[in-house]
Each structure stands twice: as C-alpha cells, then as structure tokens.
Sequence to fold (712 residues):
Amino acid sequence: MSDLERIVVLAGGLSPEREVSLHSGARVRDALAEAGIHAIIADADSALLAMLRADPPSAVFPAIHGVCGEDGAIREVLGLLGVPYVGSVASACQMAFDKPTAKALTAAAGLATPPSVTLPRETFHDLGAAAVIDLIVARLGLPLYVKPSRGGSALGAGPVRTAADLPAAVLSCFAYGDTALIERFVSGTEVAVGVIDLGAGPQALPAVEIVPGEGEYDYAARYTAGKTEFYVPARLSAAVADEVARIAIAAHTVLGLRDLSRTDLIVDDAGTAWFLEVNVAPGMTETSTLPLAMEASGHSFGRTCVSLLEQAAARGA
Amino acid sequence: MVASEIRALFAVAARPEIVSLAGGSPYVAALPLDVVGDMIGQLIATQGATALQYCTAQGDAGLRERICDVMALEQIRAHPDEVVVTVGSQQALDLMARIFIDPGDVVLVEAPSYVGALGAFAAYQAAVVHVAMDDDGLIPEALEEAIRRTAAAGRRAKFLYTVPNFHNPAGVTLAAGRRHRILDICQRAGLLVVEDNPYGLLGFDGEPMRALRADDAEGVVYLGTFSKTFAAGVRVGWAVAPTAIREKLILAAESAVLCHSSFSQLTVREYLNTQPWHEQVKDFRELYRERRDATLSALSRMMPPGCHWTRPAGGFYVWLRLPDGINAKAMLPRAISSRVAYVPGTGFYADGSGAQYARLCYSFPAPDRIGEGIRRLASVIETEVQLRDDFGPAH
Fold:
C-alpha cells in the first residue's frame, strides 16, 4: 500500500467552471475512497496556504478547472510550498492553457490544427470591429469557431456559419475573456483522447467519440446526463485511431505535460485529425470523457488516481 | 436537471471573494444570536414535547394570535382563525397556484415580478401576463387594460399577484393614492388580489403602509413572512384568506406537508412573546437604510451615463436599468470575473423580457463592500458599452 496518508483534492476556484470543478473534485475523492484512500477537498481560497502548511499533504490532486486551476497559478504556489502534486508543472500549464500558444507549439511539431487568428478586444476597438471581422472572414472563410483564448467547458464558445453572426459570437466570447481565438471550423467526428503517464511514458487511452444529442457540444451538452452520447472507443478506423492517439501523445510531449492530459480533436471527413486544444486538468465528472476512457481501457478510475498520487508523492515537490 | 451557464456562474457568486448583490438574503447576523439560542434551549426544555410533535395543518393557535398582532401594524384586522401558517410565504404561493391555476389560466403580475412567484405559477403552467409599473408601483390604467385584453381574448384572469411594498425586484412602492383605485378595479372585474408583503415593516420613512387587505377582506389574500423581520431559516410565513379559500389552503397544506414544523412555529411564537421584536425590526430598518444609502450613493457617483435606477424607500432591492443595448445576462460572466454579482432582469419576467435590467440587493454586504461592488460593476458596464459600440447590441 502507498504512503498516501494525507491527500488533498483541490476543487472549486473562482472561474465559471467552479461548479464543474466541484463535481470533478467530489468524484475524484469518492473514487479514491473506493480505492481505500481517504482524501479531503480543499478550495483555492485564503485558508488554503495555512492548511497546507499546518499539515502538509502527501500529495495534492488538482481538479480546479479554468483560471487558477489550469493556467499554472495554483501549481506554482504548490511548488513554492514544496507540496507534491499530480499533473503538469506551472510553466507547461501556462503554455497549454493558452490555446493559441498550444496550437502554435503543436503546429510547429507538425500536428494539423485549424488555421486561426487570435485577437484581443482592444484590436477590434482600435481598428474597427467591422473591418477586422471582414478581414477575418476573407482570410479564414466560413464557417468559423470562436472561443476565448483561455478557458474551458465551451463557455463563450460557439460556431459561426455566416459573416453576419460573427460579431455576436465574438461579443459572447468576450464575456468570458478579453482575447478571442477564431479558427476555421472543421466538421467531422469530435473526439477526446486522454493521456496517462504512470512512469512508463505517456500512453494514450482509447479515443472517446462525442455525439451531442442536438446542436453543439456546449456547456449544457457537456454536463447534463443523457444529452450527449459517447462512444468508447470512438468509431474510427484502426489507422485513424492510431493517429489520434499519436497526436495526443505528441501534444502531451511537445507541451511538456506530465502525468495526465486530454487532447480534443476533430477528425474530418477525409480522415485528417485536427488538434484543437489540450487540457491539463481534465474534467472528472460523471459526464466527462477521461474517466470514461480510463474505465473502458481497463484502468479503474480510482486505482489510476491512486497511482498518479503515489507517483507524485514519490517524485516529491 | 439541465446544466446551465447561469447556475454555474451563481456557484461562483456564492464565494466570499465576490461582492454579491445577487441573492436576497436578510442579514440575520444582526440578530442577538446568543439570546435566540437561549430562548430556543428554554423552549425545548419547557415545551419540547409540543415543539417536537405534529400540529394542525392550519398552524399553532398561539402563533396565529401573534401574527394578527404583526398584521395590525399594517392596519389589518384579522382573527387568528383566518390565518394559515405556511412554510415561508413561498409555500403559500405554491398552494395558491395549486388551488387556482389550471394549465393555461391567466395570472396577472407586475412587470417585473418576484422570481419565486413566477416559478410557482410556471409549475402549474399559468399564462402569466405582466402589467406595467412606474415609480409609484402598479399602474391602474395598465391593469385595466390587461383585464380588458384578457377578457377580449375570451379569458378571465384567476388573480392579480402584487408586491405592493418595496417591490422585489423593482424596489418601488404602490402609492397610497393608487391603492383604492387598484382594489376598485379588481373588485369591479371580480379579480382576486394576492398581496405578497415580505418587506412591509422594513420601510425607512414613517409608519408602515396600509395593507390592501386592510381595505378588502373578501377580495384580497394576504401573504406574510417572518423571513425578513426575524429569520429566513425558520421558514415561517402565513396567508390570510377569505373563508372558502382558507379552507382550501388548509387542505392543500395538509396534503403537501401534513403540518408545518411545530418547532419553527413555536420558536417564532416564543420570539414574539418574549423578545423585543419591535426593537429588532427597527434595528433591521436602520441597518438596511444604511446599506440602501451606500448603494444609492455609490450608484450616483460611479454609474456611467445611460444607467437609471429606482430609489427604494424600504426593503432590499434597487432595479438598475442598463444603457441601451446592454444585456445584463450576457454581461454576467464578465461581472463574475470582476468579482461582483447581480441577478439579470430576465429572471423576473415570464416572457423573456427584462434583458436590459439587473436587480441589485443591498441587504447582505456591508456598506464598504457595496461601494466596492458597485465600483466593479460600473467598470464592467463601461466595458460593455464599449463592446456594444464596437460590435452592436448583445442578444
């Protein structure tokens, strides 16, 4: 048995993904309990540092999504405290969380990612939104997909099918962040590929195919049981399944990620797999894809969490 | 339950780092909690066998007597037999809806209206028709017009639901000069009035307003609560209704909960019997007046051009109109990121309107936090105005 005497699952935070994070954290805690490990949940608030200092944990499992959780901030603080934790180091999180940076680095490594532009709201203001929008449509064509450059759970994100719809989509995006990533929309099969590294190098889990019941894979579709169908493994040819696994491992490696990640991709009708983004604190809710993929591949979710914590504890700060 | 972005945002708003001008929570920390604790201990020690037992569906007789004393402050003369104790006034709303509303029945409400009432009416598939208000509350001519239109459509409204004092969310009060007129219109139309009055004793100026029920015992169902004058957590409210309706309310309450919590009822009864509750209400009034003043002062100093707001003379709420083309619901994520929360106006309309409005509640944060929250909100609105100018109105 492990030395996991005191385990803290970090959940909550102040991003719009707080509720999702609380579900993720509770699920990780419950899975650990089933695997015989007692864990407590702590929020990233003003009581956290005193609590971690007073009774340093064997390891921390960060399950905070969005700003603070995935942008590296909380891990930077854990590093300062000398507390071991599961997952990627702060500098890697910073690159992965910023979607344009992640796209640029993975593209430089030879992965296909939809052409895009990244623009802060000041640019639209200073140069004139209409002119900038015209330029985007002329350059990238239609349809497009607009999302905040940082953030998750599809908040502020959505497809744009006509030029007339682009201003409203950019406006919705700016409700969740000050910089918009506008990329060419690729239609096809949406898949998520988890990557786990339990010491033998990053291994891809089976791809999970995501089929929203109606419309987009938006916030409601992600977190309402029954609104989305999942196929594990995804209904892909063996060659394409191998390819999405290769891309997920490549993204994990190129971005310097550690322990676990989830890469989101689209496989177009021609069979080309496009990298969209990578998550360093993937959702662990009842409707999240990473736990599904773990279970489908024969990894017990709880036992895998225990292994990740054991690895973190052994690694130290 | 369908996952909702708005609910996700309110999960963040509950954190102490956020200045929440959203939830309408009374500031119960102002109660002498040690005294209340002793009182409850004494209650259990001396009357535990009653407080922990079932009671009648109509509610404890001693409490109903005290409720009549409370209502006398608003010039309602009622007999304890006319009172039905409910689980907060929200249960009374639910029971009224259950008794009166068949799917598609028309209910008239103010524009905007209390979100909890709209939820209760929606649960019974009411066709809610909003009636315009102004700074003096419900507009009589608008009410007449709504009744006329409903009749012209071959229908008859089941009742008018109104919050006449320090309205939630609008913050306005039905002017004294309009009260008889509203009652007269309803009497002529044979329209029952449901008068919901949670804030009536929390006026900042002068004596409490005379209740509508005080002038029409047969045409008005009055709903009251101790949530704001004592403690929301005890969940004790009441309804006073004409005999036929009262009997139905008792039967419906019995069917819903068998009986209300004896413990809660006796706690309130003991509080009213043994504690200086008039003084406590006065303390609450002063506390909320200070917070109202902090709110209005900060709004005056900080809000950008194009914003307008009501100036409540009591209660908990300011109703903020945003500049043209600004959508309060669309703006909420940015506000939460800026660590301030409010309730978007659309929640207070059954027809999806109200996007340009936000409800600000000043009852819970301390005055300095209110000022900070409004400073943050003003900055968020300024950004939204710039985005509107750049991209056009949000939808």
